[in-house]
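Researcher: Please translate sequence to structure tokens.
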Amino acid sequence: MKKTITLVLMALTAMVGTADAKTFETTLWEGSSINDAEINIAADLFAAAKSGDQIRITFSFTTAGSMHLCYKTGEGGDWSAKAFNGISEWPYFSDNSVTSVTCDINAADLSTLQSYGMYMYGFSTSTITKVELTGEVTPTAQTELLDASWTASWTAKTFAAQSGAKIGDVIRFSYSAPGGWSYFQFNILDAYGNADAFTNTATNVGTSIETAADLTFDFEINNYSDMVKIQTEGFGIKGDNFTLTSVQLLTYADSYDAVQVVMGSDGIRTWSHSKNLDFTGTGLTAYYASAVATGSVSMTETATTWNYCGYILRGAEGSYTIPVVADEQASYPAATYLKGQTSDGTVAASTTGNYHYIFGKKGSDYGFFRVMSDASVSANTAYLETDTDIKPESGAPVLMVFGGNTTGINRVFSTADGNAAIYNISGQRVSQPTHGLYIVGGRKIMVK
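Model: Translation complete:
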């Protein structure tokens, strides 16, 4: 469930009726289609589109020129010369300062796009850089947060934490200005409980109102940090000479809860959480421990993780926003040997029939170390638990196997005897293997 929607912060506008829709922008293709390079956009990318949406194509021309805009109308990949509603098949741009064109999607266009996809290219003077689907969506739920109208007189009003707030939700303020000079300011609270704690200047929006009007201000929650503050601390407004009449939390079909995952420079960590997550398209890969045997632990890739289970994550250093999914959308591993640790705690020492291993690093190797005495573990991590000792009798490291490929970078060690001598195939002892075949504790090990 990759979230590709670019969320838009709505501006302060005069209210003509109450329009609950919000604007969305979804990137269908992005790159640099130079000269006659063709762009094919698959039909499944239009699955959520609807009649009335638009396709926006961003481009540049070195001189005046044309583009070919059409879509498939036949089975088997046959392309037709059918253009979009309201635009010619070969639009010609005589002004090379034009940088985009918008195509309206009617019902016939929608059916064709969802069945066959879209195709375009430009002449030698053009470069297409982006293709987007744009439109409006209406809320699936509206929750009123204001219990009574409130008049600002250089005063502040705070709202309690909204645990159900999601990325993509909108907080809508409706208020009246009587005319003359008024001032409205919205803030996410860094410290809920103090009515004047408007300290998060990154989301501070102040505006002067000089005429009498009914107004709305929409704040769209478009990042993880703001979502968490609203979920746990709340938000507030302050100002002068206006009357607040409604505050609504609007939820949309594309709204989603999320969890933040931080990866260090090692590029690998254990993971667990109380919520189910979907790692599809996030840049991180999740694995569960599907099988154990003497000398190996098999790691199987999974797109989704189940709450409270343990996993291994691999990916580049950085902070990642991972969508939360419902139970029916997450896959529970049939067998897993990684146990989730969703709060700070202790892993008991290994005993006969109940062996525990915690993740760590030894030299340049990462892996699990057998717990010989009770060990402290942090929240959102995992530890390995088996009913048999998986350490080879030779004392060699136990290799982790990812998707059938043995890796010598990530290993499981026993803290008791993880110092087995390592020799290359020439019989020379080495301290740290790199790539190739080695003899470890009398066994041949391939390090990739």
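Researcher: Any highlights?
Model: The helical segments are 107-116, 224-232.
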